[in-house]
Write a structure and sequence with these properties.
The protein is an alpha/beta fold. 36% of the residues lie in helices and 18% in strands. Bound molecules: pantoate (PAF).
Length: 282
């Protein structure tokens, strides 16, 4: 049965709609929703609270040369997709609503966590993410917030921010939802040409191989290099492909790697003009 769902554009309207006794469960998104987002909304629903999904393409987390302008904005379609998932409110502010003046107060996450991996190749990205997520948390006042584990580092950064600021919100990470052939679902997959879409599987394949060899006594550095070169040889522009500790995304020591420390293989690479990221825990 279709859910009664309200589309709200202002913070004032949102606050009055959420004036009831239960703080909501919240799914922040940038729209162009796919099954991965809908799985987050279904998880949010399980908490027996009103469910809010936000749709806002956050300029602060894009570098000048990145795809802010062409990022797909498909609000009407997104709202239709959310009907029947159990979402109660869609909060879709425009820029003037969320950033009525230049956002000069920002949340700067620690460099050890935020300037590596994604942060090395997208400087300032996590400052943009933390700033908007904190602001959205202030607007929505959620008790629970649900994020996808495809953005593995983002989830770690948001967890750390919530802990350090004692935010009264439980941050939940959900498994990556994949297409039938194994490609991680992403709003950016739509940028891929048909040929690129076929070749896109090379990234999860490389990460699975790295994860599968994570405990090899000989070490993984040569394999990391080989996999990066392999992607480059197929015309990709790989940024990183590396094995890290899950707990802080730092490289594991040999003792940790061989001793069962929980690890994750993380990768990001450009295929044509599309940048894809993915990860495999091991
Ligand atoms: O993961 C995303 O879609 C964005 O980074 C988020 C968390 C909605 C902040 O803009």
């Amino acid at each position: 049965m279709a859910t009664e769902l309200r589309l709200i554009h202002t913070i004032a309207e949102l606050r009055s709609a959420l004036a009831g006794p239960l703080r909501p469960a919240f799914v922040p998104t940038m729209g162009k929703l796919h099954e991965g987002h809908l799985a987050l909304v279904r998880e949010a629903r399980r908490h027996g609270r009103p469910v809010v999904t936000s749709i806002f393409v956050n300029r602060l987390q894009f570098l000048p040369h990145e795809d802010f302008d062409r990022y797909p904005r498909t609000l009407a379609r997104d709202v239709e997709l959310l009907r029947g998932t159990g979402c109660d409110l869609v909060f879709a502010p425009d820029e003037a609503e969320l950033y009525p003046e230049p956002q000069v107060f920002k949340v700067a996450p620690p460099p050890a966590l935020a300037d590596i991996l994604e942060g090395e190749f997208r400087p300032g990205f996590f400052t943009g993410v933390c700033t908007v997520v904190l602001k959205l948390f202030e607007c929505v006042q959620p008790a629970v917030a649900v994020f996808g584990r495809k953005d593995y580092q983002q989830l770690q950064v948001v967890h750390a921010m919530a802990r350090q600021f004692a935010l009264p919100v439980e941050v939940i990470g959900m498994p990556t939802v994949r297409e039938a052939d194994g490609l991680a679902m992403s709003s950016r997959n739509d940028y891929l040409s048909a040929d690129e879409r076929r070749d896109a599987l090379a990234l999860p394949a490389a990460l699975r191989r790295l994860a599968g060899c994570a405990r090899e006594p000989a070490g993984v550095a040569p394999l990391e290099r080989e996999l990066l070169q392999g992607l480059a040889g197929r015309g990709w522009g790989p940024d990183y492909l590396t094995l890290r500790r899950r707990r802080d995304l730092q490289p594991p020591s040999e003792a940790e790697r061989l001793g069962g420390e929980p690890l994750v293989a993380l990768g990001a690479a450009r295929l044509g003009t599309t940048r894809l990221i993915d990860n495999v825990e091991c």
